[in-house]
Amino acid sequence: MKEFNLDLQMHGLYAGGVSKEMTIPVMAEQSKIKGLDVLVTADILHKNWFQHVKQNLVEESNGTYKDTLGKCNFIIGGEVEDNKRIHHLFYLPSIEAAQELREKFLGKGNLDCILCGRPQLRLTAEEIAERVIEAGGLFGPAHSFTPYTGIFAFYDSLKDAYGEMHKHLQFIELGLSADTDIADTISENHSYSFLSSSDAHSPWPHRIGREFNKIKMSNPNFKELKKALTEKEEKMITMNVGLNPKEGKYHCTACNSCFAKYSLEQAEKNKWKCTMCKGQIKRGVRDRIKILADTEPGIHPKFRPPYVHSLPLAEIIQQTLKVKGINTKKVQQKWKEFTSHFENEIYVLTVAKKEELDEVDPLIASKIIAFRNGWVHYIPGGGGDYGKPIICDSKAEFEKKKIEFKNEIEGISDHIVQTKIKNY
Quick one: 126 exposed, middle or buried, by C-beta within 10 A (0-12, 13-18, 19+)? Predict the structure, then answer.
């Protein structure tokens, strides 16, 4: 068996808000630079994308697909939206199974509109799950904790959401707003495998693979993925990797307009109206989890692998160089120097030794090591605004900033604090 890096949620170019560069050849090329071995095809139910996938993948052996240049492996799958706007992921054994599933959904919603990378179906979560399982697929909730389209925003349990089909679910996809420690505070979740995925809308390495899974497989295909998700005692999933949940756009309860943060008690007292701008306050993942939690943090089932927090290399370089954007010439030049010197970005972030990194750039090398050491504070996101990591250069600086940014780190917000955050 070999360990593979898998990113199993993203969208193709026919979905809304997605880069026109999001094609199989570009996805495959960029995945190699990132350090990913397996991608999901994404959006396989869309007629035009289905044809694109067929034209750009070859089946090397039964159920094992690669792009035509052999740069990346692919698993057939996609995402759907149910009649309550909740999102779900599915994975299938073959292209033929995708055609079968599409036929099961015809007439049940819009599969092929210009923004339908994620089909909007007039079916319940239970009805969709039943059809996926009938087609021989794997099924589970997508970005499960987000407040607009996550399953736990609408239901208190998977049993409530999926009815009898909850027994046939194989995984829970955590999304950017949760990690293992958060998700496992709900004891029902101990029955399921966890996936962490990027939900990328562009193929570039600061998006694709920003969250991924490390899984042991004999071959990088659906059959081995199913085994990893269902035969938990085999411990084939060896690591979940992703952003710290505090970086999520909806971690804190916050105003959708000015991003001022509130405690759950404050939000309820103010009837979910922001006192600063009169905007709507949206309940964050942190507070929703507190409502649902029935287990102490840190308690996990025996099969659960470690969850490793990560950051895209370009963001670490940006903080080191103290420039505004990751797409600036300086950041991209340094990023290319690192990725061309080493095997890929994931190797740079997780494996390369300090002395090896120093050969490219000692200052950025120190920042990478500081991140590995956990010398990072996060000003948490909320209301649709991403959180902001602050990478410290030493343990002493880490302790100093813990005091300096105490309120911001804890997600406490008033007009003065809010101004500090925007000016940071």
Answer: middle
Could you tell me the residue range of the domain that residue 419 belongs to? 312-424
Give the side-chain half-sphere CA count within 13 A for 325.
Answer: 3
CA nearest neighbour of 299 among 201, 180, 391 = 180
- Give, for 160, the enclosing helix (H) or strand (E): helix 158-162
Q: Which two tokens stand for residue 367?
A: 């920042």
The domain tally of the chain equals 2
Are residue 241 and residue 328 in the same domain, yes or no?
no
Residue finishing a domain among 192, 225, 246: 246
Interatomic CA distance for residues 408 and 260, integer angstroms: 11
Cut 0.85: pTM above it: yes
Quick check: 40 and 72 in contact, CB under 8 A?
A: no
pLDDT of residue 414: 59
Q: What is the CATH number of the domain that holds 62?
A: 3.20.20.140
Mind spelling out the 3-state secondary structure of 358-369?
A: HCCCHHHHHHHH
Which of 246, 264, 284 terminates a domain? The answer is 246
Residue 184 resides in a domain = yes
Question: Cα(226)–Cα(239) distance, rounded to whole angstroms?
Answer: 16
Q: Which residues contact 340 (CB under 8 A, 6 or more apart)?
A: none
Is the predicted pLDDT of residue 95 greater than 80, yes or no?
yes
